[in-house]
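Quick question, first post here. What does this chain look like in 3D?
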Amino acid sequence: MKTQTPTLPDSSPAPLKTPPRIDSKHLLQGATVLEIDHAGQRYLLRVTRENKLILTK
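> Answer (accepted):
Ran it through. Tokens below.
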């Protein structure tokens, strides 16, 4: 009688998916502040004087 070796789940990592990308110019449309509604909460995306982005609740 032949015994079977148990099959182990594949431990190789899942392929990495590239997240969607959108240019901030498309989001902001020339504004320096953008309101984002997420799960019933309001967030503000702001462009600083140094041209960096800050997301606040």
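The domain at 24-56 is CATH 2.10.70.10 (Complement Module; domain 1).
Residues 17 and 52 are 26 Å apart (CA to CA).
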